[in-house]
Every structure is written in structure tokens, then in C-alpha cells.
Amino acid sequence: MNNNSDFLEFAINFYTWSNNLVTMISNEENYSSKFFNRKVSHIDLKNYKSSSEEFYNLTFYKLLKSVFDNTKTHIDEIENINTVHINKATIMKGNSTHILHKNSFSELHDLGITSPPYFNAREYSQWPNLILYLFDMLFNAEAIYKSLKYKGIYAYNIGDIVDRDNIYINSQMSIRRQMLGFYSMMIFEIVGFQIIGNDI
After folding, report:
1. For 130, which of 25, 161, 165, 185 could close a Cys bridge (C-beta 3.0–4.6 Å)?
2. Which Gene3D superfamilies does its entry note (predicted)?
3. In this predicted structure, what is the pLDDT of residue 101?
4. Does a structural domain hold residue 196?
């Protein structure tokens, strides 16, 4: 991919902030040191290891990991849960994080499937800012992880959105894409999931 690629320009322009450091992992070395007012560093693809510390050194990753490591999920009270039994199926209406952390189920599951609420995309899914949304998704992912059998599968359907995160952006003029897919995979890594696929 070369510097003039529409995709590269789109990714840097819409997924990064002014004065961010952008690290390019590529087999090409002709990137300039500045791009869209971003500082650019380069790692040669041949020298890049999948176990690289680059990912784990992201400030955002460290924040989520720190919260996860230092927070003991403790739910004393749980709202009334409406439960309906249809043949062998049990349908429960309530906050899935609370239900799963309460361990209401007598057995672990082979599969979890969800299309979670998107950050502030509907009236029923509003958070004051993106960080608080991601904390909620982190604790929900932990609850799902604990409810699955060893080698159980969690299928998670989410896409990026265009919005303000209410932390760095408040103006309608500076709406950016929120990388919900990337943040979700970061959360799964922290919780303990092994990522086996990513379909776009």
C-alpha cells in the first residue's frame, strides 16, 4: 500500500487525532514522518512479531486493563427478571451483565451470540462518554466469558460508528469514526478470549 492510497488517507484522517503518533506496519518504507498533522513511525513487516508489545503499550489498552485488573465485579442487588420457559429454552429479560454475574444458570454454555448496544446510537443505549460505554462492555464480556464452557464460542456483531466520544470531541464539526470493532477486540483480549476470526 502506498501513501496515496485512499484507504490509508481515510484511516489516518478519520481514526486518529491531530498530533497522534501513527505506527505503520508495512513492507514499504517510503512513508513521510508527518501525515495529516500526525507523527508517523514505521515498523518493517518482516521484523514485526505478532507478540509485539506495541499493542500492549497503547495507553487505552493500559487503562482498560488496569480497570479490569483492579475491579472486583460485585452485584448485590439485581432488578426483577422476567423469565419465560418455552420447551427447553429459557428466555430471561434483564441486564445480561447482572444476570450472568449472578450465575443464575446451572450449567455453562457452548455458545454466546450478541449484537450489543452501539455507543449512543439509540435512545435505549446512551452513555455520558465512550470510556464509560467501554467499561460496561468490558464487564459484560467478562460475564459472557465466565458463562462459557472451555472452548466455548462467543460471536459478537458490531461495527464502527460516526459520533462524538464526549471526551475529546464535543463539536458537531469534528465528528470522528469510533472504532467499536477494534475496542471490542481489545476488551476480549483483556478478558481472556482468544480471537479466532474477524469478519468484515
Report:
1. 165
2. Vaccinia Virus protein VP39
3. 73
4. no
Q: How confident is the model at residue 20 (pLDDT cuts 50, 70, 90)?
A: confident
**Which residue is it, cell 521484523?**
47
Q: Is residue 151 part of a domain?
A: yes
- Output the nine-digit C-alpha cell for 64: 482498560
Q: How many domains does the chain have?
A: 2
Could you read off the pLDDT of 82-110 as tens digits, one per residue?
A: 788 888 887 888 788 888 877 655 568 88
State the Cα–Cα distance between residues 23 and 41, nearest whole angstrom: 5
Long-range contacts of 17-20 (CB under 8 A, 24+ apart): 17/168, 17/176
Provide the whole-model pTM.
0.65
Q: Between residues 184 and 130, which one has the greater pLDDT?
A: 184
